[in-house]
Amino acid sequence: MTTQLPDDFKCPISLEIMSDPVTLPSGHTFDRLSIQRLAFSPKPSYLFWPLHRPPIETKLNSLTQLARLTKHDSGLRRKLTEWGAAPAVLRCVDSDDLNLQEKALSLLLNLSLDDDKVGLVAEGAINRVVKVLRLGSPDCRAIAATIITSLAVVEVNKATIGAYPDAIQALVGF
């Protein structure tokens, strides 16, 4: 007979049962090894989904946790940007799975709150976000419009956004 442990026993980073739980001052609990890897690794590989294509549930859980954690943590947002998380998140924005797309957009919105708005644009965020703005579900379209607005705070991004076909029309039509 196997015992099913509650999800609260799982580390939000590794999604495995915690063997050495640590509660941070923010009130979030993680497995000590996972948080040490996150804090001290130059580029933690478990954030960037290897080529073997993990199941959508794994991506969805990771995006959900990262979106929740980055909502109020500018330090983690900066680290994710420095580690190059944008391409992996943008690939999920392209997903046909609406839940995955919405969570990826939520994380992308959080990342757009920081100073590296030009970097997100350089990674190809505008094209993907405009596509969602034109064709996405109502919830995804709302997040996409907010991302475009956030990215447009930087002067050079305004011209880039305006140069994309249908970007302004999609915003106005929203």
Automatic annotation (TrEMBL):
Keyword ATP-binding: no
Catalytic activity entry: S-ubiquitinyl-[E2 ubiquitin-conjugating enzyme]-L-cysteine + [acceptor protein]-L-lysine = [E2 ubiquitin-conjugating enzyme]-L-cysteine + N(6)-ubiquitinyl-[acceptor protein]-L-lysine
InterPro entries: ARM-like, ARM-type_fold, Ubox_domain, Znf_RING/FYVE/PHD
Swiss-Prot/TrEMBL GO biological process terms: protein ubiquitination
UniProt GO molecular function: ubiquitin protein ligase activity
Pfam families: U-box
Keyword annotations of the record: Transferase, Ubl conjugation pathway
Pathway: Protein modification; protein ubiquitination
Enzyme Commission code(s) on record: 2.3.2.27
Coiled coil: none
Domain U-box: 4-37
Gene3D superfamilies per UniProt: Leucine-rich Repeat Variant, Zinc/RING finger domain, C3HC4 (zinc finger)
Protein's UniProt name: RING-type E3 ubiquitin transferase
